[in-house]
Amino acid sequence: MSGRRDRESRREERLREEQKIGATEQRQRMIKLASAGAFLALVVVAVLIVISSGSSGGGDSGNIVEAKEVDKLLAGIPQKGMVLGDPGAKVAVLEFGDLQCPFCKGYSEEVLPQVIENRVRSGEATLEFRNFTIIGPQSKPAGAAALAAGEQGRGWNFVELFYRNQGTEESGYADAAFLTAIAKAAGVPNLAKWNRARKSQVTVARVEATSAEAENLGFTGTPSFALEGPGASGVEAIGTPESVGELESAIENAGE
Amino acid sequence: MKAPAEGTLRGIGTFLATFGIGVATYIAIADSGGGSPVCIAGGHGCQTVAESSYSHLAGINIAIFGIAGYVVLLLCALLRGDAFRMTAFIVSLVGFGYSLYLTYLELFTIDAVCQWCVASAVLMTLLFVTNAVRMLTYVGTEP
Asked: Where in the sequence is the domain holding B116, given as residue range(s)?
């Protein structure tokens, strides 16, 4: 009897040992599986980050293009604030634009370079950028950033470069990273000062003031132009000239 | 240090995930109405973050992904067994990792902080810790 009990007791003990080993092995397997799961989770996070950083709808802060072309266009022309050209020029061309506006981008690339070359570089006219923020809330900080660049003599570099790297309207691409990348590429010398200026209430108020001015001039879209000069009656609104020739002849008339 | 009982961890997970669903749902509803969440402490941080391109992933507001994640974590907290311990750990790790990235974006790229996003990031961090302890301590044991 005693021998049988001993055998059963040893058998139960062995079974308990086996169960214990089985449970430990099972736990180790599960921990390994969890490690693989954790790796997979990190891969998923990496993929999400890649998708997120690529979904900014244009306006890639990591790839600012055409800085050299803009430098070449504006090289040697004096800039003060947002005014490009010789301060003694007879005619002042005022451009009311929205940095988010795709039509302004097209105008800036196709019409203004010739006007800058033919009329501004020669000292006949100045060209001033004034904000008319009509696209959406994201236009205002972008416009303020341009004015802040203008305080350091790089306003036109900022505007031209912004247009050439413009993203989709109101897609959020014009965030701090994008604006900073544009300011850097535009050659703004003191970025800390620029950063403070673009956020200041005074700068934002200037954006709002020129937008109100554009409305007072009767403008409803961008870009819209106005001229000042001996042949113009005060600040004369001319709307949006359809070609280089049309804008240049308006400049000639205002200068007479 | 002795880990808390699994029931306690599941209770904490249930509470945190429920809270997370509330926060993410508020952000999603505010966005769907064409607006943005209102920062309780004032400021325009929530609006700036909501208008940022990073608030959407493949055209979908990330708060929707947040709701989905919190719902899965809630179910995993309510249910027993290894499958749910593992799923909760993996999902909360994804949420925690992505929350870290979003917080980095807020501080260094978007240049604005949204309190609702910070609240969600804190909840997701706590959920990750809770589910990591639950998984490491109790996986392979009887439910």
From this structure: 6-138
A162 and A223 fall within a common domain: yes
The pTM score is: 0.58
In A, residues 4-33, which contact B (CB 8 Å cutoff)? Answer: 23-24, 26-31, 33
- pLDDT tens for residues A116-149? 999 999 999 999 999 999 998 889 999 999 999 9
Coil, strand or helix: which one is A224? strand
Cα–Cα dist A97/A133, whole Å: 7
- Is there a domain that residue A59 lies in? no
The C-alpha atoms of residue A156 and residue A183 are separated, in whole angstroms, by 11
The answer to whether B63 touches B27, Cβ cutoff 8 Å, is yes
**Contact call for B53 and A175, based on CB within 8 A:** yes
Produce one character per residue of B85-104: b if its CB has 16 or more CB atoms within 10 Å, e if not. bbbbbbbbbbbbbbbebbbe
Domain count, chain B: 1
Complex ipTM, two decimals? 0.82
Q: Is residue B100 part of a domain?
A: yes
